[in-house]
Design goal:
Order of helices and strands of chain B: EEEEEEEEEEE
CATH topology of chain B: Immunoglobulin-like
Number of strands of chain B: 11
Number of strands of chain A: 11
Low-confidence stretches of chain A: none
Number of domains of chain B: 1
Oligomer: heterodimer
CATH superfamily of chain A: Immunoglobulins
CATH class of chain B: Mainly Beta
Largest interface: A-B, 26 and 21 residues
Radius of gyration of chain A: 13 Å
Strand content of chain B: over 45%
Shape of chain A: globular
Number of helices of chain A: 0
Number of helices of chain B: 0
Number of domains of chain A: 1
CATH superfamily of chain B: Immunoglobulins
CATH architecture of chain B: Sandwich
Structural class of chain B: mainly beta
Chain lengths: 112, 111
């Protein structure tokens, strides 16, 4: 069974530029999550989707971050404009309802 | 607000030297407690889910236990390939909420 796919794996941008990340969850998983992991810390939720509806985006900095999940499958996370403190790993995870979450390899973002 | 605290932050063991990692949590209602393993440059890998106090799960050299306030990950006779960061996370009830993670324990097993 294929796991969660993410791209790109690495991205380096200048501050104030925009960037987008893509995630393809495990087939059949209705719930999709985006987490931010800063070096030395555990992942922190940014947004949770159930199918293509938002369940929780309370910790998403909505002035610069946006996310969508069209057709209830793939998802994109966008940052515009990026700040230095956005340097982190962005992890996508998916799950069957109520079950364990399975994570992708992450996208490592460096903002200069 | 949910809190998850893991200790120690880092642990260095000799191969074969058993030990335990701790995860203490405060949550109004626990739906599940999760353990993940994370290798450098990779996403977290699911290990166990525990749902109620007294529950235990085992996988190879790892055993996870749960009480009402904390969970332990016991590592028996570790090998160098067990070196990784171990993350604990809680899922609050009710509903199907996202996970709240601790900061992890970085484990190094020396041959």
């Amino acid at each position: 069974e294929a796991g969660v796919a993410q791209s790109p794996r690495y991205k380096i941008i200048e501050k104030r530029q925009s960037v987008a990340f893509w995630c393809n969850p495990i087939s059949g998983h209705a719930t999709l999550y985006w987490y931010q992991q800063i070096l030395g810390q555990g992942p922190k939720l940014l947004i949770q989707f159930q199918n293509n509806g938002v369940v929780d985006d309370s910790q998403l900095p909505k002035d610069r971050f946006s996310a969508e999940r069209l057709k209830g499958v793939d998802s994109t996370l966008k940052i515009q404009p990026a700040k230095l403190e956005d340097s982190a790993v962005y992890l996508c995870a998916s799950s069957l309802e109520g079950a364990a979450q399975y994570f992708g390899p992450g996208t490592r973002l460096l903002v200069l | 607000e949910d809190q998850v605290t893991q200790s120690p932050e880092a642990l260095r063991l000799q191969e074969g030297e058993s030990s335990s990692l701790n995860c203490s949590y405060t949550v109004s209602g626990l739906r599940g407690l999760f353990w993940y393993r994370q290798d450098p440059g990779k996403g977290p890998e699911f290990l166990f889910t525990l749902y109620s106090a007294g529950e235990e799960k085992e996988k190879e050299r790892l055993k996870a236990t749960l009480t009402k306030k904390e969970s332990f990950l016991h590592i028996t006779a570790p090998k160098p390939e067990d070196s990784a960061t171990y993350l604990c996370a809680v899922q609050e009830a009710p509903g199907r909420r996202a996970l709240t993670f601790g900061s992890g324990t970085r484990l190094q097993v020396q041959p």
